[in-house]
């Protein structure tokens, strides 16, 4: 028999039940549930990440939600995890949801572009990818040897081999395809590559201005951005970076969120494979990261009665959403009212379109 008290104290987001209302309030303080979390298209349960939602729907999980898993098997898209009212609608959706791989090397050469980016708001977004070779005595030190920058339409804005500042002890040719002759006199210096990338990112803005206001500066997309930026010896404001390795909905589900590889995310969310051995061009990584960003940015979240479902960015502190001095008032609220007050602890990428 279901406990009536527990059912009244049931979280409206994750459906966890509590014996006392004060325990539910404390749960809402620390969980940061919001309209921006991935949700089951069958039962509406909020999940912390897409990985958690896949487990809920039975993707290799030993304990899926049986009713949701059976419905999803019949009418669900395994890439975006949406559930459709009929199998016909699902078939029509799959053609657009499953993307093809990035252009080949011959097509890539024809996509070179030096035009201004026409993106959504401000200066749009660009994706950065770098390939590293090995430095140091044992070749384990990552040194940037190739850089690629693309726009939202997957046109190459800048691409070049980069001459490392220290001797290369391991070219990692099997993966990078980089040979010693690529990094000789014709290669760009790190300083020159950094200047070109910064010019595209700043988009005419003074560097000091973007620390406090975006202006016309561009959003920077990538996977493991800090690693790539370190390789170029440059920095960029955190509020302008969109890293698919650290975006909570794309991370692994565990006691603490950990990064999924770009290879896994491309296969599970976009439907094609990258990094399958052989020489890897940074353009493929740029395209995959940009496609992931655009897919996450295009998501429309919402609770009933909310416009676009965008409840806004995270508050400065937990106390702003659920202040302790309102404890008695919070305990008299319904679980649905508590959920409407709750805020995410990250800025959802769907807000980039607002």
TrEMBL record:
This is RNA exonuclease 4. Keywords: Exonuclease, Hydrolase, Metal-binding, Nuclease, Nucleus, Zinc, Zinc-finger. InterPro entries: REX4_DEDDh_dom, REXO1/3/4-like, Ribonucl_H, RNaseH-like_sf, RNaseH_sf, Znf_C2H2_sf, Znf_C2H2_type. One of its GO terms (molecular function) is nucleic acid binding. It is found in: Nucleus. The keyword Zinc-finger applies. GO terms for cellular component: nucleus. Residues 9-38 form the C2H2-type domain. It comes from the Eukaryota. One of its GO terms (biological process) is rRNA processing. SUPFAM superfamilies: beta-beta-alpha zinc fingers, Ribonuclease H-like. Belongs to the REXO4 family.
């Amino acid at each position: 028999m279901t406990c009536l008290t527990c059912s009244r104290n049931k979280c409206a987001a994750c459906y966890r039940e509590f014996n006392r209302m004060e325990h539910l309030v404390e749960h809402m303080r620390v969980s940061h549930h919001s309209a921006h979390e991935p949700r089951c298209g069958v039962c509406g349960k909020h999940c912390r990440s897409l990985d958690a939602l896949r487990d809920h729907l039975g993707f290799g999980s030993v304990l899926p939600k049986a009713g949701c898993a059976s419905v999803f098997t019949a009418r669900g898209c395994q890439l975006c995890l949406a559930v459709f009212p009929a199998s016909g609608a699902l078939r029509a959706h799959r053609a657009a949801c499953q993307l093809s791989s990035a252009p080949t090397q011959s097509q890539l050469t024809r996509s070179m572009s030096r035009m201004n980016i026409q993106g959504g708001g401000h200066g749009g977004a660009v994706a950065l990818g770098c390939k590293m070779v090995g430095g140091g005595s044992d070749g384990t030190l990552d040194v940037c040897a190739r850089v690629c920058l693309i726009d939202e339409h997957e046109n190459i804005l800048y691409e070049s081999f980069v001459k490392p500042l220290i001797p290369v002890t391991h070219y990692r040719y099997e993966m990078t395809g980089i040979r010693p002759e690529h990094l000789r006199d014709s290669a760009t210096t790190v300083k020159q590559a950094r200047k070109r990338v910064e010019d595209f990112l700043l988009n005419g803005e003074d560097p000091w201005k973007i620390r406090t206001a975006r202006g016309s500066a561009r959003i920077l997309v990538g996977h493991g951005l800090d690693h790539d930026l370190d390789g170029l010896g440059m920095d960029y404001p955190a509020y302008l970076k969109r890293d698919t390795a650290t975006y909570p909905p794309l991370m692994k589900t565990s006691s603490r969120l950990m990064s999924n590889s770009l290879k896994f995310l491309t296969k599970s969310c976009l439907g094609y494979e990258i990094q399958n051995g052989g020489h890897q061009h940074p353009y493929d990584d740029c395209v995959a990261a940009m496609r992931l960003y655009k897919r996450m940015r295009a998501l429309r979240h919402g609770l009933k009665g909310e416009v676009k479902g965008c409840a806004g960015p995270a508050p400065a502190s937990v106390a702003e959403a659920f202040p302790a001095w309102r404890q008695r008032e919070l305990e008299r609220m319904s679980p649905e009212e508590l959920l409407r007050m709750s805020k995410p602890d990250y800025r959802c990428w769907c807000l980039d379109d607002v």
